[in-house]
Structures are given as structure tokens and as C-alpha cells.
Amino acid sequence: MTANLFGNRIAPACKYCGHITKYMQKEDACICTKKGIVKGDYKCRAFVYDPLRRSPRKQQGLREIKEEEFAL
Fold first, then answer.
1. What span, in angstroms and rounded, lies between the C-alpha atoms of 6 and 56?
2. CA 63, CA 71: separation in Å to the nearest integer?
3. Is 21 left (phi over 0), alpha (psi -120 to 50) or beta?
4. Per-residue model confidence as pLDDT tens digits over 1-56
5. What is each CA distance from 21 to 9, 28, 51, in whole angstroms?
6. What SS3 state is found at 27?
7. Do the bridges between strand 20-24 and strand 36-39 make them parallel or antiparallel, or are there none, so unpaired?
8. Among candidates 45, 70, 52, which has minimal Cα distance to 15?
9. Given this model, what pLDDT does residue 70 score?
10. Which 3 state secondary structure label does DSSP give 15?
């Protein structure tokens, strides 16, 4: 049910897992309660998706609209 929040095709990765206690973004490493220190893209059988660990994509900015586009 929670997988629908960001889509159904979430690739398992420890940086999105509910078992990690800390994610160090610069080193791309996690401290996991099950496996210890692992890489952020590592996955194991104990993976539990936590949607609050995901950060949303940046939205595209609006383009500048010219006055010629409104002329008939």
C-alpha cells in the first residue's frame, strides 16, 4: 500500500529501508540494524520500504511566456 506513494516500481535499496538508523549521503553509506554498515544501494532480504526516507524530485520551473504567444 505504501509503495503507491512514489509508484509501484521501487527498486530495493538500503537508503529507502526502514531498518537503517542513519544514512550518510556524502559517503553513500547506511548504518543498518540488521547488517551493520552497508552501501546505500545495497539490498538484503530484510528490506522494508519506508516512503519517508525518499526525497521528492525537483519540479521543473515554468518557462517564460512572451507576449507574442497571445497575439492573434
1. 9
2. 18
3. alpha
4. 454 566 667 788 888 888 888 888 788 888 888 888 888 888 888 888 888 887 77
5. 24, 14, 15
6. coil
7. unpaired
8. 52
9. 83
10. helix
Of 60, 36, 64, whose CA–CA distance to 14 is shortest? 36
Separation between Cα atoms, residue 72 and residue 53, nearest integer Å: 49
Residues in the chain: 72
User: 29 is written with which cell numbers?
Assistant: 553509506
Burial of 20 (0-12, 13-18, 19+ CB in 10 A): buried
Q: Which three cell numbers stand for residue 11?
A: 527498486
The grid coordinates of residue 22 equal 542513519
Residue with cell 521501487: 10
